[in-house]
Write a structure and sequence with these properties.
This protein has 181 residues and is mostly helical. The protein has 2 domains: 33 residues, no CATH class; 128 residues, no CATH class. Helices cover 46% and strands 10% of the residues. Helix 3 crosses helix 4. It is elongated and about 65 Å long. It binds zinc ion. Zinc ion binds next to loops.
């Protein structure tokens, strides 16, 4: 294996669960086995997938000002950009929904046989390579940070809260379907 920082090449050493392998030139951690790491990654990936699905179609933010309440899901947020900004809507969807979700599905696909001590999945290597290549393009946390900054800025002007609240469109009203209740 090659050190990801300085490219020094090593033959892979045996590392037990309470040891760590460091690069002796730049001290980057090369191998740090953790018990049940695969299971934890799969559990977290599955949880994040469920949350992505929830935040995509259900309102994740509601704003109330002057008696008017409005809530928005990620889909509604993305499709708020129309006309000349359509490309922005597609980019928002790609970077904060589709690419993170694809990455998580690939990780689960690669790790599931590993934790069950089965043979590697058929396309495990290209799938893991692709999951790693997609990492810089999964920007859900940047979106969350942007939302947090907007929340702080808006807090003086309006009543802002996470999630859906009574009085605005119900949580099952998606951008394509708004029932009257
Ligand atoms: Zn190194």
């Amino acid at each position: 294996m090659a050190c990801p920082k300085c490219d020094f090449v090593y033959s892979v050493p045996e590392v037990t669960s309470n040891e760590r392998a460091y690069c002796h030139r730049c001290h980057t951690v090369l191998i740090a086995p953790r018990r049940k790491a695969g299971k934890q990654i799969i559990a977290l990936a599955a949880s994040v997938l469920i949350l992505i699905a929830g935040a995509t179609v259900y309102p994740f933010l509601s704003i109330s000002v002057g008696g008017q309440t409005h809530s928005a899901s990620i889909l509604e947020t993305a499709f708020a950009f129309s006309g000349a900004l359509t490309a922005l809507a597609v980019a928002v969807l790609m970077f904060i929904v589709i690419i993170p979700a694809v990455r998580l599905v690939l990780l689960i696909y690669v790790l599931l046989p590993v934790i069950r001590d089965l043979a590697l999945a058929r396309y495990a290597k290209p799938a893991f390579r692709m999951a790693e290549a997609l990492t810089p393009w999964a920007m859900a946390e940047i979106f969350a940070l942007g939302c947090a900054v907007a929340l702080v800025k808006l807090a003086d002007l309006a009543d802002v809260a996470f999630g859906w609240r009574p009085g605005c469109s119900p949580p099952w009203s998606f951008w394509w379907f708004s029932p009257k209740v």
